[in-house]
Amino acid sequence: MNYCRPSPVAATLLVLAKAPIPGLAKTRLTPPLSPRDAARVAAASLLDTLESMSRSPVAHHIVALTGELSDAECGDEVASALSDFEVIPQRGASFGERLANAHADAARYGMPVLQIGMDTPQIGPEVLTWAARELVLREDALLGPADDGGWWALGLPMPQPARTLVEVPMSTDRTGELTRDAMLRCDLRVRSLPRYNDVDTFADAVAVAAESDGRFARLVQQLHRSVLASR
Fold first, then answer.
1. What are phi and psi of 69, to 5 degrees?
2. Tag placement on the chain: N or C end, fewer CB within 10 Å?
3. Phi and psi based region of residue 187 (left: phi greater than 0; alpha: psi -120 to 50; beta: remaining)
4. pTM for this prediction
C-alpha cells in the first residue's frame, strides 16, 4: 500500500541566529556563568531550535546567521546542523535592520514568513508547525509575546511591514507592544501566539530548562547544580 506524505506547509520558517562565541553570546548569563559556559548555553539553545525547525514540515527553512562558527563553542556541531538549512548572512547595523532585511531575504519564495529567535529552546515542532499553518490560512500577522515584554515569533504574510521594525526599540519591556502597533499601522490584523519565556538571564535559563528536555535543559541543569554547589 502506498502512503502519501502530507504536503509541507506553504511557508518559510526563519530564525535569526548568532554564533555562540564566548564573550559575545548570552553575556547576561555572566555571572554566575563564565563566558565559555554562557556560549555553551547559547549553542545548546540554538541546536534545540534548529532541531525543532528541521522537524517542522514547512516548505523552506532559513537561518540568518551572524558571527564566525570557527570562533564559537560547539562550532562544528552547529555547522553540521546548519547543513540541513539554507543559511544567509544577516545584513544591517542595528538589530531592527537585520530583522527587516532577513524578512525581505526570506520572502524570495513568495510565501509567508514565520520568524523566530534562538532563545526559546522549549518550543517544539508542533507549535512551529501550527503557527505556520495559521499564518498561511489566516493571512494575518502573528506575534508571539515573551514574558519580558518582547516577542519570540513574528509571522508576516508579506515582507514590507518588517521595514517598520527598524524604528521599533528592541530589547525593552515594550518591544512587543510597539511591534504590534507597528504592524497595525501597516493595516494588518495581529493575532497572538502563546506566550513563552525567552532566555536572557540565568534565572530565565533555569526556568526554561525546567519545562524542556533537550540539550539546553540538560546543560543548564548541570550548570545550575554547579552554581548552587559553589555558593
1. -65, -25
2. N
3. left
4. 0.94
How many Å apart are CA 167 and CA 55, to the nearest integer? 34
Nearest Cα to Cα of residue 164 among 197, 191, 141, 132: 141
Instruction: Round to whole Å and give the CA distance between 158 and 141.
Output: 9
> Which three three-digit cell numbers place residue 64?
540568518
State the number of CA atoms in the 13 A half-sphere of 171 facing the CB: 8
Mean pLDDT by 10 residues, the chain (231 residues): 70 98 97 98 98 97 98 98 97 94 96 96 97 93 96 96 94 94 96 96 97 95 95 81
DSSP string covering 128-160? HHHHHHHHHHH-SEEEEEBTTSSEEEEEESSSG
Query: pLDDT tens digits, residue range 4-20?
Result: 566 899 999 999 999 99
Contact of 185 with 134, CB cutoff 8 Å: no
* Cell numbers given for 81: 546542523
Q: Which amino acid is at 134?
A: E
Q: How many CB atoms lie within 10 A of CB 188?
A: 19
Q: Is 19 left (phi over 0), alpha (psi -120 to 50) or beta?
A: beta
